[in-house]
Amino acid sequence: MSPRKKSPSSRGSSSRSSKKTVKDDASAYAIDVLEGRVLAGKPVRQACERHVQDWNSQKETGLKWRADLAQEAIEFFEEVLTVEVRNEVRPFTLEGFERFIVGSIFGWHNPDGTRRFRTAYVEIGKGGGKTPLAAGIGLYGLVADGEQSPEVYAAAVTAEQARICFRDAARMVERNSDLKQLLEERVSSIYYPGRGGVFRPVSSEHRGLDGKRVHIALIDELHEHMTDLVVEKMRAGTKARRNALIFEITNAGVEMTSVCWQHHEYSLKVLEGTFDDPAWFAYVCALDEGDDWMSDESCWIKANPGLGAILPIEYLREQVRTARGMPTKQAMVARLNFCQWVQQAVTWIPTEEWNSNSDPLDIPGLQG
Questions:
Q1: Is 1 within the bounds of a domain?
Q2: Residue 355: what pLDDT?
């Protein structure tokens, strides 16, 4: 299935950002972030800078930016898929950050023609549309990727969590006549008879993670994975695939020894250039140092790039009001809604108040 081609909008570029004229939506987002038209936190700015730097050094590195393939993937979402937003079914019109993610994954290629990115780590605040985005990526890998016998898995810790992403994909199929003709829906799988492909949910709760020939694995709620079992089983299944992808989506977590924390930290090191891993894509939302989510709404979009379009701002206002009035909720809101890693799920006494009373105790002064 090939989406109808349409002319992408072009945008000018500055000497700071690029040496070319931007002719694709993914690169346009990167330019907008770097030139300040889109507000983003430091890791996202670094991801955009990496994109532009790699774009400008293609001759030296051998990497190839295929804007046509990036646009083709983006248009698959917007012309074929639908999504539920606030209880309303709409065409899956991607926001700028989603175009950047989708376009980067499918647009960057190695010198031998294979896709560059084999792991994509995406950390965004709760309610930011991560799971439907993953479902769409899975469907694209199933029907539009040209892969023979593609195996796509929605993978999670629990079977119920894995079924959420799978159900999103199944509903997208049900609402499109072309997909319904191509695919066969069953209780717990979507088959593609024409290519011998399958899309199904898997979890660590049940056996069956071994023996997969994974084309695309969609790892949902990575912060809930206390071990790397699911991730490594899926990764092992990609060894025979030329264009395999492990797509990880998550909020921030609380466990500093988890696989999610390891991938979070690794992503930051890749983005800042400490580690050179051309096959690792990272889009990590974060507030900047000095941002105060409790009192300043202007910084919220850094952790929630779909704010307003995907996530209602009133929802965040409710969460912040609750956190102000109930200190026990502050750690949860900071983690889930503002991508701040915390050391505990619940805070009884706010950290700043605890620290302000950390002077040595005057025992003699308490007598009587």
A1: no
A2: 53
